[in-house]
C-alpha cells in the first residue's frame, strides 16, 4: 500500500503543481495588464511594474491553492477512471476509506503550504509590494485617503495602565514608506466626550516602547471648570457648549506622547483584513474591542484565515467521487470543467457567507465555517452515492 500511496501522491502533486502554475501565470498577467496604464507616470517604469507583480505572486498562491488542489485532484482521479486504474486498485482490496485517507494525507501537505503562505509570507509581501509601488511614484501610503489614516486609543492615567480618563482620535495626513508620519492631528476627549486637547504636529516618529516623538507641535487645551468640580454630573440635556473663554495654546519644538497606537496598528488599519496574518488580526481585533469599535469584520477574517486552508480537505474529498465515474460518464475535459465550476461556486458561496454573516451579525466562527461544512456534506453524499451505484 505504500507504493500505491506514493503513486497517488506523485500523480496528484504533479497535477496540482501544473494547475497552480497556470493559475499564477494567469493572475500575474491580469495584474500586469492592470499596471500597464500606470507605467510612465510619476516615474513608474515597466521594471517596477514587473517587480510589483512578482511580489504579489505569494499572495495569489494562498488564494488559488484550494482550487488548484481541487482541479488537480479531479484531473488525477479522472485519469485513473479513464485508464481503469482505479478499478484495478479497488479490485486489489483498496477500499473507499483507504483512498480517502490517501487523499487526505496528500491534502495535509497542501494545507501546510497554504497556511505558511497565508500566515508568514503574504502579510510581508503585500506591504512590500505597496511600498514598492509608492516609493517608485514618490507617493505616500495614505495618498488614496482624502483625510489620511485614522485610528483611536484610550487615554489612561499612567500612560499604558491605570484608570481610563478619556479617548484620543489619531489622524495622520501622510504615512511615509519609512514609517514617518506627516501632518499629525490628535483629538483628546474626556470621559463625557468633551474635547479637552487638540494637538497638531508637522511630523511624528515612533521611538519604541509606545512612545511617539512629535515635532513642531501646537497644543490647544480647552478647560471647563464646571466639569472638574467635585460631585459635578454633566447635564447633557441642558448643557451643550464649551467654555471657549478658557482656551490655552502652547507651541513646542518636540513632545513625546505615550499611545497604544503603534506603526503596526496604523499599517494594519489601512490593510485589507484578508491580507493580514492571524496574529495581526488578533492584535487589531483586541485593539478595536478595547476602544469600543466594530470588530465583526475582523473576527470573521480571523476565523476564515484559520478555516480556509482546511477547506482544501473538503475540496479534495469532493474530487474523490470522480474516480468512480467511468469514461461513459464524461471525458477528462468535462470533469475538469465541472471541477472549475465547483471551485468557483465554493469561492462565491464563501464570499457570500462572509457578507451575509456581517450583515446578519452571525457568530464569526459559524460564518467562516458554514461553506466548508456545506461542501463537506456534499462530498460525503457524493461518495455514498457513487459507492452505492
In round numbers, the mean pLDDT is: 85
Using the CA coordinates, give the radius of gyration: 28 Å
Q: How many strands?
A: 6
What is the beta-strand fraction?
15-25%
Q: Could you estimate the helical fraction of the residues in percent? A: 55-70%
How many domain regions? 2
Quote the distance from N terminus to C terminus.
26 Å
Shape: elongated
The H/E string reads: HHHHEEEEEEHHHHHH
Describe this structure in words.
About 55% of the residues lie in helices and about 15% in strands. It contains ten helices and six strands; from the N terminus they run H-H-H-H-E-E-E-E-E-E-H-H-H-H-H-H. The chain has helices at about 1-35, 45-80, 85-90, 95-135, 265-270, 280-290, 295-305, 310-320, 330-360, 365-389; strands at about 150-155, 165-175, 180-190, 195-210, 210-220, 245-260. A hairpin with a 5-residue loop joins strand 2 (about 165-175) and strand 3 (about 180-190). The longest helix is centred in the N-terminal third of the chain and has 42 residues, at about 95-135. The protein starts with a helix and ends with a helix.
Amino acid at each position: 500500500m505504500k507504493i500505491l500511496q506514493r503513486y497517488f501522491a506523485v500523480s496528484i502533486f504533479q497535477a496540482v503543481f501544473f494547475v497552480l502554475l497556470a493559475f499564477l501565470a494567469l493572475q500575474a498577467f491580469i495584474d500586469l495588464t492592470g499596471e500597464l496604464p500606470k507605467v510612465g507616470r510619476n516615474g513608474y517604469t515597466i521594471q517596477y511594474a514587473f517587480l510589483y507583480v512578482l511580489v504579489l505572486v505569494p499572495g495569489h498562491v494562498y488564494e488559488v491553492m484550494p482550487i488548484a488542489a481541487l482541479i488537480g485532484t479531479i484531473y488525477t482521479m479522472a485519469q485513473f477512471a479513464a485508464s481503469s486504474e482505479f478499478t484495478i486498485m479497488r479490485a486489489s482490496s483498496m477500499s473507499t476509506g483507504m483512498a480517502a485517507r490517501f487523499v487526505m494525507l496528500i491534502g495535509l501537505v497542501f494545507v501546510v503550504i497554504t497556511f505558511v503562505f497565508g500566515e508568514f509570507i503574504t502579510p510581508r509581501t503585500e506591504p512590500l509590494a505597496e511600498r514598492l509601488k509608492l516609493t517608485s511614484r514618490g507617493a505616500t501610503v495614505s495618498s488614496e485617503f482624502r483625510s489620511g489614516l485614522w485610528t483611536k486609543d484610550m487615554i489612561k492615567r499612567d500612560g499604558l495602565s491605570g484608570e481610563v480618563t478619556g479617548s484620543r482620535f489619531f489622524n495622520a495626513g501622510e504615512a511615509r514608506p519609512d514609517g514617518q508620519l506627516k501632518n499629525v492631528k490628535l483629538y483628546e476627549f474626556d470621559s463625557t466626550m468633551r474635547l479637552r486637547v487638540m494637538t497638531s504636529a508637522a511630523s511624528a516618529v515612533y521611538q519604541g516602547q509606545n512612545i511617539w516623538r512629535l515635532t513642531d507641535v501646537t497644543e490647544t487645551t480647552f478647560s471647563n471648570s464646571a466639569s472638574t468640580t467635585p460631585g459635578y454630573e454633566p447635564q447633557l440635556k441642558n448643557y451643550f457648549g464649551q467654555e471657549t473663554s478658557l482656551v490655552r495654546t502652547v507651541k513646542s519644538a518636540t513632545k513625546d506622547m505615550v499611545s497604544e497606537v503603534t506603526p503596526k496598528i496604523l499599517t494594519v488599519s489601512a490593510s485589507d483584513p484578508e491580507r493580514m496574518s492571524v496574529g495581526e488580526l488578533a492584535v487589531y481585533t483586541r485593539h478595536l474591542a478595547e476602544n469600543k469599535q466594530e470588530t465583526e469584520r475582523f473576527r470573521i477574517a480571523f476565523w476564515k484565515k484559520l478555516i480556509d486552508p482546511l477547506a482544501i480537505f473538503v475540496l479534495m474529498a469532493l474530487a474523490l467521487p470522480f474516480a468512480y465515474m467511468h469514461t461513459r460518464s464524461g471525458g477528462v475535459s468535462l470533469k475538469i470543467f465541472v471541477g472549475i465550476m465547483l471551485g468557483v461556486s465554493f469561492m462565491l458561496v464563501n464570499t457570500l457567507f462572509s457578507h451575509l454573516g456581517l450583515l446578519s451579525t452571525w457568530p464569526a466562527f459559524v460564518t467562516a465555517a458554514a461553506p466548508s461544512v456545506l461542501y463537506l456534506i456534499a462530498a460525503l453524499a457524493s461518495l455514498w452515492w457513487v459507492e452505492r451505484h
